[in-house]
Amino acid sequence: MASAFRPLLLFLLLLPLSVTANLHKSKTLLKSSLFSSTTTSHLNDTPPTTYFEVTKPIRLPKTQPCVYPVLHHDFGYTYGKPPVLAKYIPPSHCPSHDFSKIVLEWNATCKGRQFDRIFGIWLDGVELLKSCTAEPRATGNVWSVKKDITRYYSLLVNNQTQSPAVYLANLVDRTYTGVYHVDITVYYYPAEKKFNDLESYLENLASGYGYRADLILPISQNFPLNDGLWFEIENSTDTEGKEIQIPQNVFRAVLEVYVSFHESDEFWYGNPPNDYLLANNLTDKAGNGPFREVVVTLDGNVIGAIWPFTVVYTGGINPLLWRPISGIGSFDLPSYDIETTPFLGNMLDGKTHTLQFRVTNALNVWYIDANLHLWLDGKNTYTEGKLLQHQVMPLGISYSSYFKGLNGTFLTKANRSISSIGWVKSSHGKITTKAIQKFSYGNSMVMGNNGNVQMVNQEIRFDDSVQVKKPYAFPKANKSRKRFLIDLYSNDMDQGNRTYLSVANVTLGFNENKFGVRGAGFRMPVSSLQNLQNGQGIKVVKNKLLVSGVGCTQQKYKYEGNKFCYFRNISSSNYTILNDEVGNACN
């Protein structure tokens, strides 16, 4: 096997960075792998490896933060047990209680052998962070996640005692030895200046642009439970959600949705269509094709959708690709906002209403929950509203295939648009909000070499806009255009003796442009993000354990805002950083 390994490794290193995509295998055709670790005495002298996700630093004020330790805990055998709870009260020792930035920090260490684990942090049922653990090595690893959680301001400064909950389902036995040692801290940065409430609302129309809601309602599971607070979507007919009742003086609402996919749908973008699986008697493999859509309903009516970014967790495809540079979004999974203000006319009646989620073509399992951000009229007990127009274009999806035996080509395309218009009358006046979502999707898949080679090329375009208009005033709008890419190539070669060799090449792309529209169509750029990651890996797996291999990763991250820019060009190979260029100059 060594003689075959060297030319293959040389071939791998000479591959171009923009390659077609790679699939995995287990119950899914694509595989996660667990690294086989050895325990020798010299490992105790080796320092742990620091893992990280490339992202822009959080812009902080010059003020000194107040520090609040939330939790210290060792997550050993926690599978099937309740979330770990703590007590939370905003710090009273801060010289100022007007904060311009609040940052959550997760620090963790682990040593031994362990799978990647999904985890979440909630405060009174509101999810603050969804993330994936770093897979440890025998010498140990450390990693840190910092997240700007200022958008949860009203919840974080609530003087009542609240309950943070952390769920990380972990197994510890003779095989899986890694225990996650975790510290969670919150940093409160006093404000340098105050902002005008109404001006901030008009200038920060879409959530995610910095404006704070007055109340946040959790759309998550209630205690007691022996699991995370997420709803579990197990198939395409499964619908989960929660009844809510909102105050009657709300003038704006945004639904923030957290999504993650696991088990049979961890690599949903590489799932073959069912006719291919049936024709080849592969009924034990994950199918339903490569298209997925998260659908959100209010009282049974579709109000929005999410076509998610393809996060690859730290054990996905080839774990060596994500050491030490983690996959895009793996340490801080993205949340997705749906402007629900046009529907307030249907929700301000003082009655309960039902928000629910389903996933088109879903297989077991998707974890979904949400936070409903509400803005309250401080001068009125009641507001009123009306839904003027709501149009949901049916999901347009097309599928074509040609296959003979285990080899074939498959093409899937989809599109959808959702728009709504409604007004709300409050002390701010009668404001009309128009929200539009537009989606397009394409996935090409090739199976070759009797099903051992798989190539996937997928692109999602996800555009949304929110426009507000007061009487006798020009409309103002914020728009976002996202482009999610994944290219995968994988080739599995049986080596006998329950061993196989796998070559994998991966490209991930997360691009987003935000801009505002003012007056008669004048466009003002807000920010742009180009985040592209390439990886080339080879691994040898025996008895489902990764025993050797190599992984090389290159990433270019470029963010440009009106007042802040950040650039990073970094590459690594098997735990070692080869190149790292960082800049913060704006063009």
Notes on the structure:
The chain contains 4 helices and 30 strands. The protein is mostly beta strands. Strands 1, 20, 21, 22, 23, 24, 25, 26, 27, 28, 29 and 30 form a 12-stranded mixed β-sheet that branches. Strands 2-8-5-10-3 form a 5-stranded mixed β-sheet, with no helix packed on it. Strand 22 (407-426) and strand 23 form a beta hairpin. The longest helix is centred in the N-terminal third of the chain and has 12 residues, at 2-13. It is globular.
Summarize the structure.
With 587 residues, this protein is mainly β. 5% of the residues lie in helices and 51% in strands.
Radius of gyration: 24 Å
* Coarse structural class: mainly beta
- Residues in β-strands, percent: over 45%
Q: Describe the sheet with the most strands.
A: 12 strands, mixed
- What is the molecular shape? globular
Tell me roughly what share of residues is in helical segments.
under 10%
As residue ranges, the low-confidence spans are 1-26, 196-203, 205-210
Question: What is the residue-mean pLDDT, rounded to a whole number?
Answer: 90
Rounded to the nearest angstrom, the distance between the terminal CA atoms is: 51 Å
Question: How many distinct helices?
Answer: 4
Number of strands: 30
Descriptive tags:
twelve-stranded mixed beta sheet; five-stranded mixed beta sheet; mainly beta; 587 residues
Task: Please write out the topology.
Blueprint (H helix, E strand, L loop, with lengths): L1 H12 L20 E2 L13 E3 L14 E10 L8 E2 L13 E12 L7 E6 L2 E7 L8 E8 L4 H4 L7 E5 L11 E11 L6 H7 L11 E5 L11 E3 L6 E5 L5 E12 L12 H6 L13 E6 L2 E6 L28 E5 L13 E8 L5 E11 L7 E9 L3 E9 L2 E20 L2 E20 L4 E17 L6 E21 L2 E20 L3 E21 L2 E17 L3 E9 L2 E8 L4
Parallel strand pairs: 1-28, 2-8
Antiparallel strand pairs: 3-10, 4-9, 5-8, 5-10, 6-7, 6-9, 11-19, 12-19, 13-18, 14-17, 14-19, 15-16, 15-18, 20-22, 21-22, 22-23, 23-24, 24-25, 25-26, 26-27, 27-28, 28-29, 29-30
